[in-house]
Amino acid sequence: MSSNTAPVGGGAPSSNIFLIGLMGAGKTSVGKMLARRLGKTFYDSDHEVERATGVRIPVIFEIEGEAGFRARESRMLADLAAASDVVLATGGGAVLSEQNRKILCAHGTVVYLRASPQELWQRTRHDRNRPLLQTPNPLGKLTELFSERDPLYREIADIIVDTGNQSVSSLAHRLESRLSQFTGAGNSSSPPDRGQDNTCAP
């Protein structure tokens, strides 16, 4: 089980930790364990949208379309990011909104849990609660989403973690160590993977 946990830098150290990445990357499972280890409150933005609406996300997609869901997601993200001492697992498509990316940059340390489309497909292939994957070729859809969103994840990430086949506990432990190093080091170096026009630029 190999992992590349690379501090990228660029965001201001904060009490909040935001986990970004595609569906199946492990944001919820890792986030819950990380929150327990750090004594923070865990939230999953998708679950909070479901709690607030009283219906599952596939139903929101069916009734309001993806645009309707994204609007609800953005409002929820703004509310959760304004809290303190939280670990927040964001929805895979939250980064599509520039405003969402700015909110994440401004209110916490952003961690990108990265996995290959093949790894993501293995983890999500039996999950029927992911509307975007209800297609004849879910692996192809994941590959398309990865191509579209990976640059956006990298744009705002303070830390990038290649999850590989690590266990949740191992990943949470490694991430806790990297977060400690990142917040201790401050914001002295510019991120090598970001361009001058990135969303998080001052």
Write a brief caption for the model:
This protein is α/β, with parallel strands linked by helices.
Number of helices: 7
Order of helix and strand elements from N to C terminus: EEHEHHEHEHHEH
How would the global form be characterised?
A: globular
Termini separation (Å)? 37 Å
> Which spans of ≥5 residues are poorly predicted at pLDDT below 50?
1-13, 185-197
Oligomeric state as shown: single chain
CATH topology: Rossmann fold
Mean pLDDT: 82
Counting DSSP E segments of at least 2 residues, the number of strands comes to 6
Major sheet: arrangement of strands: 1-6-5-2-4-3
- Broad CATH class: Alpha Beta
Describe this protein's structure.
The model is unreliable at 1-13 and 185-197 (pLDDT under 50). Helix 3 (57-81) packs across helix 4 (98-107). With 202 residues, the protein is an alpha/beta fold. It is built from 7 helices and 6 strands; from the N terminus they run ββαβααβαβααβα. The longest helix has 25 residues, at 57-81. The protein has a single domain (15-182), classed as Rossmann fold (3-Layer(aba) Sandwich).
Question: What key phrases describe this protein's structure?
Answer:
Rossmann fold; 202 residues; alpha/beta; single chain
Layout of helices and strands, plus pairs?
Blueprint: E1 4-7, E2 17-20, H1 27-38, E3 41-44, H2 45-53, H3 57-81, E4 86-89, H4 98-107, E5 109-114, H5 117-124, H6 138-156, E6 159-162, H7 168-185
Parallel strand pairs: 2-4, 2-5, 3-4, 5-6
Antiparallel strand pairs: 1-6
Helix pairs in contact: 1-7, 2-3, 3-4, 5-6
